[in-house]
Design brief:
heterodimer, A: about 500 residues, alpha+beta, five-stranded mixed beta sheet, rod-shaped, B: about 220 residues, alpha/beta, five-stranded parallel beta sheet
């Protein structure tokens, strides 16, 4: 909600909120204590410098003025640098206004008090400080302050006009000029503070208060044309209170800046580490792929060797096993090369695709019964379904030779369920879930069992948003259940994907 | 008739073709139906092979080199078959007593010839190469041990934090998971860096990876 993202300073109450302390009373107590401290400082100034009224000719020419100038300028410089670092335009200009006041207007008015020349420089530096305070509002980032800025500009124009009239009238011109520009300073500061309070920006508020205190001190200085001790002392007191507030502001602002910087660095370090881990995982995945491909190449080399060198000695069952192993490796290779592809996912009819697979396997001599509902739509790759069901039918032929296999497809809720059931010996004690893992096979699997076939099938199903599980009954047989997302479910998912921003 | 050679490989084509080739030269060969360690030891106990041809990468993070000494105790010679470039893994298998190793990248006839020699109990890997590989494993093992000692300095919670850092979790996610403030997580991270004697999270993560920490979490 605030505009000083990145500067880190959101006022003392904000910081307490973040630490989880009940915000309001603490903030109130803090504010009250701060205000009391300022009053005490002002009172001390009054007591110290108010007694010797005759000794003090002007509030700014006393012992306190050089201190205020030096300390004020130094602290303001600190705030200025911090604002520069965080790129906070408003704080930059507000601190610049203070800098011009403490480092320019105050020393000049000190020097001017010693001699009786024209006080144009003094007036000018007051004016610049005031203008900067105003311009702090005119920085580009905020539209909400336009009414405030407009008010300030109008007030400013009005006061310039007033100053011109006073000058033309020729009545105590320097003093009038100074008074006009002081009014500008005060008006600018007041507007700044209003903005700061609206936006809950503590540092800006504090800086505005400093300007206001200094402005008030100067106003007293001007207003007391016959200089009285009380007026002088009040001016000193206000100046001291301003400097005290400046100390607090500078210290907390810089501290918050450093903390924000540390947090920022920690975030960057975090991101670097996460990127590094991502790269590492990418490397590991690439190494895994390389490894798989080397294995497949070695296997294919072995296959060509077997065919070329051992042709005469290979039995029919040898050839069958070789064929299965090659098919499995090709399926793995397909997954490796294009895990998400094979063909582009699209809407297709599960029933007709299954009918094709069943026809092919029937032609190869397998006894298959097949039932499927009509209009069973899913989104995915028919090639994946063909591969999965072919794998399942081959497995049934291997593990339950000669048995009849039943393939069925039906709509169930929002899913399309494909079942492949054989009446063979079942899974026995083997863990149905483990059978779907890569390279794990059932207890009765011969050397030609297809551990990878089931794993690959499971992966293929998952790639299309489906799942594959195996169920065995006590009586006999094994059922593979392939669940595919139904077209309705798919439509809902894609709609929600479109709907989300 | 007892089995002379047992082939253990998670890739069916290699196991199948190697089996065919070895049968062609008159050896009796069987394939291990299950490549999980208990299944392998069961197959070895039932078939009592003279030689086990063992793939070092059995998938799912199962490492062949960890099985070598068990297989030798069961009375089999071990020939390591690997497609990996990890020399220290080969060294580990040789140090555990494997007869030798052969790369899957070598021409298939060489692979068959190596298996035949190994089945006769002959050396497959020259002694000098053997020593080099074992030395590579020793060095990697020493480094790994040193890193593990470094990791042992961490408190259990710091270890958990490091594991999650090493698997790419955000510090914010850690704070949420352990129900602590970000400041606590940051100070834990600082403590980890101090104990591991490193200057940055990146180095700490590198140490964790080299020591093998967080592999399980990451997968």
């Amino acid at each position: 909600m605030t505009t000083d993202e990145g500067t880190g300073y959101r006022g003392p109450d904000r910081r307490r909120e973040r630490r989880g302390v009940v915000p309001l009373p603490t903030a109130l107590i803090g504010r009250t204590l701060g205000g009391l401290t300022l009053v005490v400082v002002a009172a001390v100034g009054w007591l110290l410098f108010g007694d010797g009224g005759e000794a003090v000719s002007s509030s700014t020419s006393s012992l306190t003025a050089p201190v205020i100038t030096a300390v004020g300028a130094l602290l303001t410089l600190l705030v200025f640098v911090r604002a520069l670092m965080s790129g906070d335009a408003r704080m930059l200009r507000a601190s610049l206004a203070l800098l011009v006041y403490t480092g320019g207007a105050l020393p000049i008015s000190l020097a001017a008090a010693e001699m009786s020349g024209p006080r144009a420089f003094e007036a000018a530096s007051f004016a610049i400080a005031g203008l900067l305070a105003v311009s702090a509002l005119r920085t580009p980032d905020v539209d909400t302050t336009r009414p405030i800025a407009l008010t300030v500009c109008l007030a400013f124009a009005g006061m310039i006009g007033l100053g011109a009239i006073t000058l033309a009238a020729g009545a105590s011109s320097e003093l009038a000029l100074r008074a006009v520009y002081l009014a500008v300073l005060v008006a600018g500061t007041a507007a700044l503070m209003r903005y700061a309070v609206q936006q809950r920006r503590g540092a800006l508020w504090n800086l505005g208060t400093c300007l206001l205190l200094f402005g008030a001190a100067q106003f007293l200085d001007i207003a007391a044309t016959p200089v009285t001790a009380a007026m002088c002392a009040a001016g000193v007191a206000l100046h001291l209170a301003g400097v005290a507030l400046l100390v607090h502001t500078a210290v907390s602002y810089v501290r918050c800046g450093l903390a924000a910087r540390r947090r920022g660095e920690a975030t960057i370090r975090d991101r670097c580490r996460i990127a590094e881990v991502a790269i590492r995982e990418e490397h590991a995945a690439a190494a895994e792929r390389d490894h798989e491909i080397r294995n497949i190449v070695a296997g294919l080399a072995g296959a060509t060797y077997s065919i070329a060198q051992l042709r005469d000695r290979l039995t029919a069952s040898d050839l069958q096993r070789l064929d299965r192993a090659v098919q499995t490796e090709i399926a793995v290779l397909q997954l490796l090369v294009s895990p998400q592809e094979g063909s582009h996912p699209h809407l297709y009819d599960v029933g007709t695709t299954l009918a094709d697979v069943v026809d092919v396997q029937r032609a190869a001599g397998q006894r298959i019964t097949f039932t499927a509902g009509s209009g069973l739509l899913t989104r995915g790759r028919p090639a994946a379904l063909i591969q999965i069901v072919t794998n399942l039918l081959r497995n049934a032929a291997t593990h339950a030779p000669g048995s009849s296999v039943h393939v069925a497809a039906a709509q169930e809720g929002e899913s399309v369920i494909v079942t492949v059931t054989d009446d063979g010996p079942g899974l026995g004690s083997a863990n149905a879930e483990a059978l779907l893992e890569r390279g794990v096979r059932g207890h009765d699997a011969g050397p030609d069992g297809l551990g990878l076939g089931l794993h690959v099938s499971s992966q293929l199903a998952a790639n299309d948003g489906g799942s594959l599980r195996l169920v065995t009954s006590d009586s006999a047989g094994c059922t593979a259940i392939l669940e595919l997302p139904g077209a309705a479910a798919v439509a809902a998912v894609s709609l929600s994907a479109v709907g989300s921003p | 008739m007892t089995t002379q050679v047992l082939v253990i490989d998670d890739h069916p084509l290699i196991a199948e073709t190697l089996g065919l080739a070895l049968r062609a030269v008159g050896l009796t060969v069987s394939r291990c139906p299950d490549i999980a360690p208990p299944g392998i030891m069961h197959a070895v106990a039932t078939t009592a092979p003279r030689l086990v041809v063992l793939d070092l990468d059995l998938g799912e993070g199962r490492r062949g080199e960890d099985l070598v000494s068990q297989l030798i105790r069961a009375g089999a010679d071990v020939l390591v078959l690997t497609g990996s470039q990890d020399r220290s893994a080969i060294g580990a298998a040789l140090a555990a007593g494997a007869l030798g190793w052969v790369s899957k990248a070598s021409p298939f006839p060489d692979l068959v010839a190596a298996a035949v020699r190994a089945a006769r109990g002959e050396a497959v890997t020259p002694a000098s190469e053997r020593e080099t590989l074992i030395a590579a494993w020793r060095q990697a093992d020493t480094e790994r041990r040193a890193l593990r000692e470094l990791l042992d300095r961490l408190s259990p919670r710091e270890r958990e934090v490091l594991e999650r850092l090493a698997s790419g979790h955000r510090a914010e996610a850690l704070a949420r998971e352990f129900v602590v403030s970000m400041a606590t997580v940051r100070s834990q991270i600082r403590a980890i860096l101090l104990k591991l004697e490193v200057g940055s999270q990146l180095e700490a993560v590198a140490v964790a990876h080299r020591a093998g920490l967080g592999e399980r979490v990451a997968s």
